[in-house]
Amino acid sequence: MPARTTPNARSSSVIMQHDSASDFLAVAYPTLRRHEASSNIVLAHALKRVSTEAALSGYQFTSDTDADAWLASADATSFAPHPTNGAFWLTLWSSSPGSHPTLDVVLSCVDWTLGNYPIFLWTPKRPSEHASAWLQPRITQLADHLRQCVSPERVFSVFGMTSLVKTFARYWSHITGFRIEPEPFYAAYFSSCNVNTFRRSNAALPAGHSLRRAMIPDLEQVAQLCKEFADDSVYFPLSLDRARVEARELISKGQIWVYDACGALTTICAVTRNTHRVSAITKVYTTPRWRRRGCAEFLVRHVTAQLLFDCGKECVVLYVGHENSAQKVYHRVGFAGLCGDEKVDGVEDSLELGFVGSARGHW
Asked: N or C: which end of the chain has fewer CB within 10 A?
């Protein structure tokens, strides 16, 4: 293992660059598994890039001892910054004399069908543990490493827990000259629902209405709703042709449900990030003329119940904007820490900050 940098007198840290999901999961999976809900974005994106067998069984048997052995045997190239055009992950590890290395921060730089994703940051540390003396040197190391891997234009935005993102964005802007966009792209709560918090409802669907997975004959209507959802975001609009690409992928993978009002699809609910015990609702949208009729609540409750009770997920997670009225819907379904409720453990404040002049991706 190469020489380590020293954030303080008692510990040292090192960054590994992983150019494949399999290499990343070989060392990070034990930590990600222990924090499967909060790590949903980085874990799910990595699992999508490995074989089904590896995702379902191989990494399930990876232990901290295996990760330690992998770290100890890694050659110098794993620690050296190097440019790459594909997906990669940076992991920052720290250790103290006589202790095992611990995974402190993950940086994910990946893409998908419609382009590049933001830079995602994740840490197993709770927000209360993000003291500046701990956070600043680690984020500085990661940003300096990233600067040698990609052009600054690639980093169009960064998303993660608020303290991570603010620290990264300030330093990234300083070293690249790319100014932070004046308004956040997204300011949201990360929330979850489990079998104990889930709230059932006795409300009946109107006659002729149904809740179901979308099918290929629904493609045009689903694409239109995907486009409207993207256009609502302002920062990541979609053409109808690109929305069709997204809709076809979601339908073919069985990852999107619809509220069907006698043939008119009013609402969509997508579940695109799935790990062994956790699923994430990643898109909920009702077309304007059908709003305030309970469509989204019916559909979100239906999908959440299927994931928890039929599929056996331990929890369902989602992000919802601070000012988004959908908080009320999710709160009524049983998602924790919303609408003024106590912010229980695991309910986190998240932020996406963009950079002026960068090459905008899509998510």
From this structure: N
